[in-house]
Design brief:
This protein is of the alpha/beta class and 462 residues long. It is built from 19 helices and twelve strands. The protein folds into three domains: 7-64, no CATH class; 87-312, Rossmann fold (3-Layer(aba) Sandwich), CATH 3.40.50; 344-444, ACP-like (Non-ribosomal Peptide Synthetase Peptidyl Carrier Protein, Chain A), CATH 1.10.1200.10.
Length: 462
């Protein structure tokens, strides 16, 4: 299974690139069918001066990734009807999204559903009143013997399994420095082991569809979700793997849904996504797209309600990943005539030529604009410079974004503790002023060759 086992690392790499741009994390997918050239290709890629951070080699051709609008659903929508004499299985079936999909399937003709859940309890009376036979199967999809039992019981019911929707999953957000293996495994297992067990144990069945609910996190990367991005990247790769074996396979990179799902139950998460141009998908809209996707043959489709111009603002001074190049061109065309942010070169020049007092004013004004953006605050009422950023809502995720902006725009790399421990705009401005002053000293006052030990130690420290 070339590439499937390593795919989770590809998803994690997207988050490494976002949380630690200073590492220049590049993902390289070597040709599994290459005849002895892998080391040379990797060597050349390492030394190649390129901005590309996602590269795949196939038949000695270097390919790069780009996110583009899909035309899969542009045709006349097809109505999908479920078989009345067949069974359909939904993992995560008793969750908000699972029940929403189950209700829609019954409305579209499904009469026999198996909802898989670790808890085993659910509100299924409404589905039964609609004329469906619903079985809530208490099982852990990460355990192959439990999945095998469910599949065996369905086949013994004389109502064959015809479709699978893998919607199981949990979220446990944290930056890379906060995540240990236990927190990774907690998120990876339902996605990776669950999908793999379903893949193996239904491989000999004539399924009409095998749909995995992935996330936009593995498509574009989300800071603070390395485990989530890794698990969903596996689903994306598994869909391609299944199709290569002439089996049905579709991975849908969903954005957040309104009313159901983890983001819908957290106002902070909703605000965070909205501040980045990601609006929630209305349930009816999402179900309509799901119906359209069931009637096409793509292996992977992203479904997200996004304002790409606003989304790209999270990256400093056009320093967005090459993945978004095509979308950025479209966003620039749409934004023609609108005011743009101060160019990095202009800001640095102003800071270098300003008096200390003027420099501090520029830094405070700059930080007020960036804090307002990163926290999604009212632009007409920027925060006072003495306010605690933590009380305003700055957390580990938004701190990473703010730090990355500062690093790109001002060429100063502040340690994360400056943002987390009772930080304010005043304090950040002071820290930046100190770093700019040190940079000026090291550039303009080069040491002579005749330094004593104490002087040499001080220069090295600076």
């Amino acid at each position: 299974m070339p590439g499937v086992a390593q795919s989770a690392l590809w998803g994690m790499g997207k988050v490494i690139a976002l949380e630690h741009p200073e590492l220049h994390c590049v993902r390289v997918d070597l040709d599994p069918n290459a005849q002895g050239n892998e080391a040379q290709e990797l060597f050349e890629e390492v030394w190649l001066k390129s901005q590309e951070d996602e590269v795949a080699w196939r038949d000695r051709i270097r390919q790069v990734s780009r996110l583009v609008h899909s035309h899969q659903t542009k045709n006349t929508p097809k109505t999908f009807t479920f078989r009345k004499d067949s069974t359909y299985l939904i993992t995560g079936g008793t969750g908000g999204l699972g029940l929403l999909v189950a209700r829609w399937m019954v409305e579209k003709g499904a009469k026999h559903l198996v909802l898989v859940s670790r808890s085993g309890s659910s509100q299924i009376e409404e589905l039964e009143q609609m004329g469906a036979e619903v079985v809530v199967a208490k099982a852990d999809v990460t355990q192959p013997e439990e999945v095998a039992r469910i599949v065996r019981e369905i086949e013994q019911s004389q109502r064959p399994l015809r479709g699978v929707i893998h919607a199981a999953g949990v979220v446990d957000n944290g930056t890379l420095t906060q995540l240990d293996w236990e927190r990774f495994a907690k998120v990876l297992n339902p996605k990776v082991a669950g999908a793999w067990n379903l893949h193996l144990l239904t491989g000999n069945l004539p399924l009409d569809f095998f749909v995995m609910f992935s996330s936009v996190a593995s498509l574009v990367g989300h800071a603070g979700q390395a485990n989530h991005s890794a698990g969903n990247a596996f689903l994306d790769a598994l869909a391609y793997h299944r199709q290569s074996k002439k089996l049905p396979g579709l991975s849908i990179n969903w954005g957040s849904w309104s009313e159901v799902g983890a983001v819908a139950t957290s106002q902070a998460a909703t605000d965070y996504m909205k501040a980045r141009g990601m609006e929630a998908i209305a349930p009816q809209q999402g179900l309509q797209v799901l119906e359209e996707l069931l009637g096409q043959n793509a292996a992977q489709i992203g479904v997200v309600s996004a304002n790409w111009s606003k989304f790209l603002e999270q990256f400093p001074a056009d320093a967005y990943p090459p993945l978004f190049s095509d979308l950025a061109k479209e966003a620039r065309q749409q934004a023609k005539g609108q005011p743009t942010r101060l160019q990095t070169g202009d800001l640095i020049n102003q800071l270098q030529t300003a008096t200390p007092e003027k420099q501090r004013e520029l830094l405070i004004a700059y930080l007020q604009i960036q804090v307002t953006k990163v926290l999604g605050l009212d632009a007409s009422n920027p925060p006072e410079s003495h306010y605690s950023l933590n009380e305003l809502g700055l957390d580990s995720l938004t701190s990473i974004q703010l730090r990355n902006w500062i690093r790109t725009d001002i060429k100063v790399d502040l340690p994360m503790k400056k943002f987390i421990v009772e930080a304010s705009i005043d304090q950040l401005a002071n820290a930046l002023s100190e770093q700019l002053a040190l940079a000026s000293i090291t550039l303009t006052e080069a040491p002579s060759a005749d330094l004593n030990d104490e002087e040499e130690e001080e220069v090295i420290r600076l």
